[in-house]
Design goal:
By secondary structure, this protein is of the alpha+beta class. The chain has 3 domains: 10-275, LigB-like (Protocatechuate 4,5-dioxygenase, Chain B); 283-384 and 460-471, Hypothetical protein ph0010, domain 1 (Glycoprotein, Type 4 Pilin, 2-Layer Sandwich); 387-457, Hypothetical protein ph0010, domain 2 (Dna Ligase, domain 1, 2-Layer Sandwich). 36% of the residues lie in helices and 24% in strands. The chain has helices spanning 24-45, 61-72, 77-82, 119-126, 142-145, 148-154, 170-180, 200-215, 230-243, 255-258, 283-303, 316-319, 347-360, 370-374, 394-400, 430-440, 466-471, and strands at 10-11, 53-56, 85-91, 100-102, 107-108, 115-116, 131-133, 159-165, 186-191, 196-198, 245-254, 265-275, 321-330, 333-339, 345-346, 376-383, 387-388, 407-412, 415-419, 453-457, 459-465. The strands form 4 sheets. Strands 2, 3, 4, 7, 8, 9, 10, 11 and 12 form a 9-stranded mixed beta sheet that branches. The longest helix is centred in the first third of the chain and has 22 residues, at 24-45.
């Protein structure tokens, strides 16, 4: 295997004319149309507009181009203009090798224009043990090349740092992403299809399961049969969990939806990753969730059970797998608060279930009636993924806490308790915050032991008076 630098000129495209049009005019018009259609779909769904990372498919444009367009359409014009570097990772299909491969060329050719390589990023990556120059891996490989026209059209000011993943674990992929993560100027794109050559209905179920794992940032269970780019995806999910991002499936289809034949299909997904601390639902989506919570409690008052929801009828951000807490306040007094510590079901469903439980299953409060409910305020918190706080003692833990930003979960001696970030409004001092949380868990206010564990999370929180929700237009 020759790892030496072979050619510093632009590497010619290998799959133009097969996976995508070789004619520059047709290619430009087609890619622009796919991105515009994707942007319209994302805008209609009310999804975020400035993701840090994307997952997009890499089949021929007739099959997966529309889903790739949804991924690229997730970024608005202002966000696109900021991107000067795209870190692109995809699986090697044709040549087997150990580690992660980078090309030696200074540019990658497309029918549109050569896409310049970020040689500084490549040099930084090559300093990582396991990342090598290996041009043979790129010969005829489509997983990265099919993205280059999209990158050229969507990010005309960007250079690209392309890498093929061979036999490499998620730790190496994560290490590479860490090194090149950058700031607002850098976009990470993972190239991957999902299930391969299953019957249409079986593929839908399989891809939905894979999609749930991606949204829940659970990479451990992903395998090659779930997504051909699973190694890079697992690396991204590890980074996303550590850096507090949240993932949303924007599009989930198969070749049976785009190309017609449903006997044996390939699955495709478009995913956007945003920093959880700044991710926000649209006002209309927040209103939908608050109204769903209200209706679930009313259903509980009238029928003794939560409302039922048809998840597939809601926009993608409301169907994303999320953990939520729903709180009821009567004046300044808490009237019920119940939630989920980890994402395990669609956001809209989690809110409906937790609203019912907050009203009728919080053991700290007596049963709710209609008169009390009419005076209440509903509050919903969408939690990010809990991350362990390394702390050897209480002093280190207190130094790590970020007032007004961190929610906190503590565990020890069989006890566990949680405070949402909004609790900081009434308890602004970290020492008091931690002491009261320990008391909530049934521990002494100054409790500490070697087995004491703490986890932080952030939350998107919003609310409304029930009376105002009852008089607002139905969503």
């Amino acid at each position: 295997m020759d790892m030496s630098k072979q050619d510093i000129s632009a590497r010619p495209p290998g799959v133009a004319g097969t996976f995508y049009p070789a004619d520059a005019g047709a290619l430009s018009a087609g890619v622009r149309s796919l991105i515009e259609a994707g942007a319209a779909q994302v805008q209609s769904a009310g999804a975020g507009s400035a993701p840090k990372a994307l997952i997009a498919p890499h089949a021929g444009y007739a099959y997966s181009g529309a889903i790739a367009g949804t991924a690229y359409g997730a970024m608005d014009e202002a966000a696109r203009a900021r991107i000067t570097r795209v870190v692109l990772l995809g699986p090697a299909h044709r040549v087997g090798f150990q580690g992660i491969a980078a090309p030696s060329a200074e540019a990658l050719g497309t029918p549109l224009r050569p896409v310049t390589l970020d040689t500084a990023a490549r040099d930084e990556a090559l300093a990582i043990d396991g990342v090598v120059l290996f041009d043979d891996g790129f010969a005829g490989e489509h997983s990265l090349e099919v993205h280059l026209p999209f990158i050229s059209e969507a990010f005309p000011n960007a250079s690209v740092a392309p890498f093929l993943i061979g036999q490499a674990d998620e730790a190496l992929a994560g290490c590479l992403l860490d090194a090149l993560w950058g700031g607002d100027e850098t976009l990470v794109i993972i190239s991957s299809d999902l299930s391969h050559f299953e019957a249409y209905d079986a593929a839908r179920a399989h891809d939905r399961s894979t999609s749930d794992q991606i949204e829940q940032l659970r990479g451990d269970g992903l395998r090659g049969e779930d997504a051909c780019g699973y190694r890079a995806i697992r690396g991204l999910l590890a980074c996303a969990r550590r850096l507090d991002l949240r993932a949303t499936a924007l599009d989930l289809r198969s070749s049976g939806d785009t190309a017609g034949d449903r006997a044996k299909v390939v699955g495709y997904g478009a995913y956007a990753f945003e920093y959880a601390v700044s991710a926000r639902l649209s006002d209309s989506q927040r209103a939908v969730l608050l109204d769903a919570a209200r209706r679930s409690i009313i259903n509980g008052l009238n029928r003794g059970q939560p409302a039922q929801v048809s998840v597939g009828t809601f926009a993608a951000p409301l169907c994303a797998s999320r953990a939520t807490f729903v709180s009821l306040h009567e004046g300044t007094s808490l009237r019920g608060c119940v939630g989920s510590l980890a994402p395990r079901r669609p956001l809209i469903e989690d809110v409906v279930q937790n609203a019912f439980r907050a009203a009728f299953a919080d053991p700290r409060f007596a049963g709710l009636n209609a008169e009390i409910f009419a005076r209440c305020t509903l509050e919903i918190s969408i939690l990010s993924h809990a991350r362990a706080i390394p702390a050897a003692d209480e002093t280190e833990l207190l130094a790590e806490l970020r007032p007004d930003r961190d929610g906190l979960i503590i565990e020890d001696a069989g006890a566990r308790a949680l405070f949402l970030p909004v609790v900081w409004k009434g308890v602004p001092d970290p020492i008091t915050f931690l002491s009261r949380l320990r008391e909530k868990a049934g521990l002494k206010p100054d409790h500490w032991s070697k087995s004491f564990r703490a986890f932080r999370f952030t939350a998107e929180t919003f609310g409304a008076d029930v009376a105002a929700l009852q008089t607002s237009p139905s969503q």
